[in-house]
Amino acid sequence: MKRFHLFFGLALLVAFVLTGQYMDKVHNHLEGMEMGMRMLYRTRHIFLLLASLTHLGLGFYLQPRTGAWQRRTQLAGTIVLSLGALLLLAAFFLDSARRDLSTPYSHWGVEALLLGLALHGLSGLREARTPDAA
């Protein structure tokens, strides 16, 4: 799982760089764009960096859990985090171009990052120990 987070985090970092190039080359670094759409592009771009750094951080520090429920919870957290990152990548292209300034992909992507990190945190809780029967 550590290796997955490292590679996925690096892929998201590349996506972050490429979306920056996209804003520069395709949209002339957002010059002359109305302020609302400009902010959407820039914030969705930064959200990709957030997702990338989240995965990279987990890739560097993740400790596989030993308990069965902790491993399942950790895996669920990884899946939710990854889906959230993919939603944020979609949000860069789909939410940023919306004229009504609504942000459904960003909303669900950030919520997924929060839930995924919460699941990873929950997986770190120790199982309740029962007193030894003497």
Percentage of β-strand residues: under 5%
Distance between the termini: 39 Å
Query: What would you call the shape?
Result: elongated
Radius of gyration (CA) equals 18 Å
Counting DSSP H or I runs of 4 or more residues, the number of helices is: 4
Please provide the count of β strands: 0
Largest sheet: none
Question: Which terms would index this structure?
Answer:
134 residues, mainly alpha, 4 helices, elongated
3D structure, described in words:
The protein has 134 residues and is an all-alpha fold. It is built from four helices and no strands. It has helices at 2-25, 35-61, 68-94, 104-123. α1 (2-25) runs antiparallel to α2, α1 runs parallel beside α3 and α2 (35-61) runs antiparallel to α3. The radius of gyration is 18 Å and the shape is elongated. The relative contact order is 0.16.
Question: How would you summarize this macromolecular structure in one to three sentences?
Answer:
By secondary structure, the chain is mostly helical. Helices cover 73% and strands 0% of the residues.
Question: What is this structure's SSE topology?
Answer:
Elements: H1 2-25, H2 35-61, H3 68-94, H4 104-123
Helix pairs in contact: 1-2, 1-3, 2-3, 3-4
